[in-house]
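ok so heres the complex, three chains, lmk if somethin looks off
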Amino acid sequence: MSDLSFWAETGQLVRAVGRAMGVTFRNFFRQPVTVQYPTVKRVYPDRFRGILALAYEKDTGEEACIGCRLCELICPPQVIKVEMLKAEKRNFAKTFTLELYSCEFCELCVQVCPTDAIVMLKTFDLATADRREMLLDKDRLHALGLQHEASWATGNRLRDMQAPPRPAKAEARGPGTPGGNADAREPAE
Amino acid sequence: MPPLLQHAITGFIVLNVVIGLVTYVTLLERKFAARMQSRIGPYYVGWPHGWLQPIADALKLMMKEDIVPAAADRWVYNLAPIVFLVPCVLIFATIPFAPGLGVADLNIGVLFFLAVSSLEIVGLFMGGWGSNNKYALLSAMRAVNQIISYDLPFIFAALVPVVLAGSLQMSAIVEAQAGFWFVLYPGLGQLAFVAFLVATLAAENRVPFDILEAESELVAGFRVEYSGMKFALIQLGEYAHMIGTSFLGALLFLGGWLGPGPAWLGPVWFLLKAMAVFLVVTWVRWSFVRIRVDQILAISWKLLLPATLLLLMATALVVALQGARV
Amino acid sequence: MPETQDRQVVEIGYGGSERLVMNMGPQHPSAHGVFRAILTLEGETVVAVDAVIGYLHRCHEKLAETLTYVQYPSIASKTDYVSAMTAELAYVASVEKVGKIDVPRRAQYLRVLAAELQRIASHCLWLGTWCMDMGGALGGGATVFLYAIRERELILDLFEALTGARLLYGFHQVGGVRYDLPAGWAARCRQTLAHIEGRLAEYESMLEDNAFFLVRTQGVGVISRELALDVGVCGPILRGSGVPYDVRRAEPYSSYEDFDVQVPVHAAGDCYARYRVRMAEFRESIRLVRLVLDGLPEGAISSRPGVKSVGQVRIAKGEGYTRIEGARGEVGCYLVADGGAKPYRLKWRGASFSNLAVLPHIIPGHKVADVVAIMGSVDPVFGEVDR
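and the predicted structre for the whole thing:
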């Protein structure tokens, strides 16, 4: 730095100072990037991984969960506890507890669910002063699922994303069934 | 009315106005800085735009617990904020806000201002020493180094308008700028103003010279052990000194209360000019990284002091060659 | 190598009773996480540094023994949480190598895409926090910090649209990746890259010729080539000391051999050189992302698709070490598999752990203010150090 003459160095300093202050000046007139949550909510993407909930089946309106306990098996921090209730045509979950305060939001339970019963919602807003309110039981999970919009990424869609679309099989299953649609994996550009 | 009582009342009014101004200047700085950083700054307290934020901060600081470290040197620790605050507010005594409107328009006004404002270093060092904290001590040592080094260029830069006006009295300096402001004086005015701003930055511990409070190294420097009202006093003192030197800069270089319009508009112009100086200093603060203490001292002793000395001598030469007044 | 094993103490003449032992403790605005540096000072000069780590130890290696190969990748992202994609990649790449599992071409390209975007995001955070350390939370440094975080948020928005999460993704799985690109993502990605390139030019103009920045970084924290090779630093620090070593070129993984990765190198070895290396890496990563988007092949994104992706993977007996180039340097996993669904032993090689070892060699002799500048240019993340 000292290979320049005094005036050249001073000139460089003045220019550098001017440039730096120019950048801050320019940013003064740019729109602030603040999103004033909670008055204004940001648009969440389709696959947003929010809090968990249990869903109902679309056609029959029954609970979608068959109590298979695959989600309990795969959960890394082991926050899900399920008891199966056997019935005539299909099984149900007798109790389903999810400890949301320890949940990692890794979406593995969603990915493994065969009936798209457990879903993640496009909201994360469950702040509370008492941690016990975040120990979600089955009723609470179903209520949450009705209150908020679910993410696009359900179990079948996640699994189908990982293989290239097979048009023959999709038509065999018929349109409108979960997992058989061509939009299960949108094509990249 | 006996003059002592009159001065006491004026002093009381000025003190309150200054404290009110200082609290709202913090809000101004925060909003200004926020806009430069693509964010909004205080907004919700006193919606919109945080008008009550300074009041909220003041209330919070008053209600906070006053924690005194067990091993602190009690008297030094407790007195330090007061010793720091008093000179910082006393400088406002000599500033005339309009012709005849001021506490004491001394005929050695500038000298009094500069002398008293350098007394804050005592309070600063007392705070650093009395805290019995290595971070505070390091900061106090750096502070003494830095402020003493930058007081001299500050004084010389402030003396340039004094030489141009031929008087140390502040109102006389403003009246000497009736023709044109000293900052517009070819060459000498601009250089002196720039030197004044740089020395202000250093004397106020503003980035790029804020090594002594270096939040990322010393975590608030000499203030680290203060909480509650004592911290509020220190903050008040810092910002009061900041505003004081902005007012001085506006008075010495930007023509004080001179401006178009009726005479009662004078203090308003003065305030606007002082805020402009303050905002330029703030703008610099939010644009640069800080430099190390040995580099700060090098700039002061090797660059700024000789430069301001030469500037002062050049000004004296010009004035002597042209006669008494510009 | 006796010098590297002794405690480095610089004698500057004042001697014993003038020394002050100051703790830059685990709670510190510039500790970059939780790092304790016990500094011995004489006046303003640091005479010796004792580094203490371990405040963030979370037993990752033991945890890996209790979780299956399917469950662990989303935990792996928590080691280097600033650069989560590369951390997960290190784990799944080692599992795939030991288990001889193929990864489809499209998945490899998507992994490159994620890793390079993550490198850009990680370097944004580095730039912001480094300038903040040097400039103060209430000074000009915070300005650069907010600008850099503003840009990083754009990349995090991209990742959010891709995986659903912003910081810890769980994007990788054994055999490929979990998520494919949504519609319109590539166009959005290109737009973001163009925007970031423009802003990068702005930051460089703010810092590049700035005398204040240059005096803080040039000649500060010089790591000589010999010292760098002796101590075993990696990543941008190594490349800033003149050694042109990059795992993406030396041992290409995950289809990096298809891209001609340009490795920026600077010989000076000071903080400024490391800064220049990382700024060049920004541009190189942007170029690589564009190449990936242009040449992305069609196909499956995992060799264990659908139900197999959540089924158990059993890796036959074997062991092996796989390394990848993370944002901070070489991240590696040494995996010992015993035929079951869980590893027998997993050892993480954290880039920051090796990089921190150089601090006691280069800090003594500098002033206190330089400690933060040097630490910022070394850019440690303590999830990687303490695991």
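quick notes: DSSP finds six helices and five strands in chain A. thats all i got rn
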